[in-house]
Write a structure and sequence with these properties.
alpha+beta, Serum Albumin, Chain A, Domain 1, 7-stranded antiparallel beta sheet, 33% helix
Length: 521
């Protein structure tokens, strides 16, 4: 069998490829890699975070696993407004929703995983117990002034400055408490995270910090398996996750490229594409939320305003703090027809900043995405999921997979994936499409506004001029800055040939390899 895998950290890619060697498929490889990433990339992902994924099975069907966690049943929006004013806090217990990631792994495994649960978690347990070298991205975030609110806090310093100084590139990074949690998960299965010993300890810890989450909030949570949303584009079907995620923004942009039409969307037409996304950002803020609580007309939003270019100055839905860290994307595919685009996250770098000393689990801050404005579709409410930036993507041609796309990048994820896909369809190879310079409109980097476009300085003159003409304000950043995402891509030719690429903006690796099938005695 041939297996392909692309992740933002080389050790995660190595562990996932070992899953193929051991007889696993793309589902196994993706989950193994994701679990290792919770150990080696804690500024981006943790056991205490969410997951959203697309999985394609050999019968040609594609499903979306939505394992984004909900708020507690005791959530009181009035008290939150009284205590916080206009916006929820970025850090702390009020920003923590039930972490959905482990239930997400469980749901994904149900679509045909071949390795045991214990085997799947073993590499992550080993990495936490034995330690791994600190990667450059992690080291930079440990000392980044943007995370200064965490410096000196008991939880942060215990994990990331264990000897009285901050961990540096190459230092051995061990997490014995997290290793013990993986051992408990290995033995007890996913339920121990939501109903067993890990759940009890996590809830006790969170409530000691002021959380309203309860035993029932964890025990009742299940991942949701739903149909993806899609649009036809250049002979392909492009699929992504529905609301409560913002995947529809990608589909809306692809429709705009066809319908406006936008000639040369990565060159002379890039400014127009950025204007389309500018409008999309406003639609996300005003119309997208948890569909269990509010109606979200995906079809209408995908074509809203495509015949006009809107005025600038759309309001942002939330505080202007920009996430630094955010997310990991894992892309996996195999010659048996299993394909996975998996996105997992803690949201801002190091999430809520809360790390339970007994379990070693770092908790995300996805709850800070909620609004406190009662008129917002994303207003916080009991057992509600927040508007989510995670959005896995894949394409099919007559039900056969062609592209597997995943990225970090916060509010810019639809824009990053659109540019990579357009580049690939214009003939760029996987590596070139991922490495190409990017532009993202909105609150993407420090100093950006809703009306600015963050552009890598090696963007072509033609593309740069088109942004200037669009009326949006360009902000230059260095080439290959991780602020514009860590993307991971697999391209599958019509003859089944696999090519993979990991973003040079990350510490990742992409591998394609063939392994003899294991024959059981």
């Amino acid at each position: 069998m041939t297996g392909a895998l692309a992740t933002p950290h080389a050790l995660a890619s190595e562990a996932g490829m070992q899953a193929y060697r051991d007889g696993g498929n793309a589902i196994d490889a993706a989950i193994v890699a994701a679990a290792v990433l919770t150990v080696v990339y804690p500024h981006n992902v943790a056991l205490g975070g969410d997951l959203i994924a697309l999985v394609r099975t050999p019968d040609g069907e594609v499903r979306c696993v939505n394992a984004s966690g909900w708020t507690g049943a005791a959530t009181d929006v009035g008290k939150l407004r009284a205590g916080n004013g206009k916006w929820l806090p970025i850090r702390g217990a009020e920003s923590v929703t039930v972490p959905g990631g482990v239930r997400g792994w469980e749901a994904l495994r149900g679509f045909g995983a071949r390795l045991s649960w214990a085997r799947t978690l073993a590499p992550a347990e080993s990495a936490a117990s034995n330690g791994v070298p600190v990667a450059p991205s992690l080291a930079s975030h440990i000392t980044d002034p943007e995370n200064a609110d965490l410096f000196g806090s008991e939880d942060f310093d215990r994990v990331f400055a264990p000897s009285g100084r901050s961990l540096r590139v190459g230092d051995l990074f061990t997490q014995p408490a997290l290793a013990d949690s993986f051992a408990a998960l290995r033995d007890g299965g996913p339920d121990t995270f939501y109903q067993g010993g890990i759940a009890e300890r996590c809830i006790s810890y969170l409530r000691s910090r002021g959380s309203w989450l309860t035993v029932e909030d964890f025990a009742d949570f299940e991942a949701e398996v739903v149909e993806p949303i899609s649009t036809p584009f250049r002979g392909l079907t492009v699929l992504t996750s529905p609301p409560n995620t913002h995947g529809l923004l990608l589909l809306r942009a692809l429709r705009a490229v066809d319908e406006l039409p936008i000639t040369d969307p990565l060159g002379a037409g890039l400014g127009t594409l950025m204007r389309v996304f500018h409008r999309s950002n406003a639609l996300r803020a005003s119309h997208v939320g948890d569909p269990r609580f509010v109606e979200v007309d995906v079809s209408a939003l995908m074509k809203d305003g495509l015949d006009v270019l809107e005025e600038l100055g759309a309001a942002a839905n939330g505080p202007t703090a920009v996430p630094h860290g955010d997310t990991v994307g894992v892309s996996a595919a195999d010659s048996d027809g299993y394909v996975v685009s998996l996105i997992q996250s803690v949201y801002h770098a190091f999430g809520s900043g809360l790390i339970d000393p007994e379990t070693g689990i770092l908790f995300h801050n996805r709850g800070t995405s909620f609004a406190l404005d009662s008129d917002s579709p994303n207003v916080i409410a009991p057992r509600k999921r927040p508007l989510h930036t995670l959005m896995p993507v894949m394409t099919l041609e007559e039900r056969e997979p062609r592209h597997v796309l995943s990225t970090m990048g916060g509010q810019g994820q639809p824009q990053i994936l659109a540019q990579i896909l357009l580049g690939a369809l214009d003939g760029a190879g996987a590596e070139s499409a991922v490495a190409a310079p990017r532009a993202v409109v909105g609150l993407q980097t420090d100093g950006a506004t809703v009306d600015s476009v963050t552009i890598e300085s090696n963007l072509s003159t033609m593309a740069r001029d088109s942004i200037q003409r669009s009326g949006l304000t360009p902000i230059d950043v260095a080439p290959h800055t991780e602020a514009l995402g860590h993307a991971n891509v697999i391209v599958i030719d019509a003859d089944g040939t696999l090519a993979a690429a990991s973003d040079p903006r990350s510490d990742g690796a992409a591998v394609v390899a063939h392994y003899p099938r294991r024959v059981e005695p």
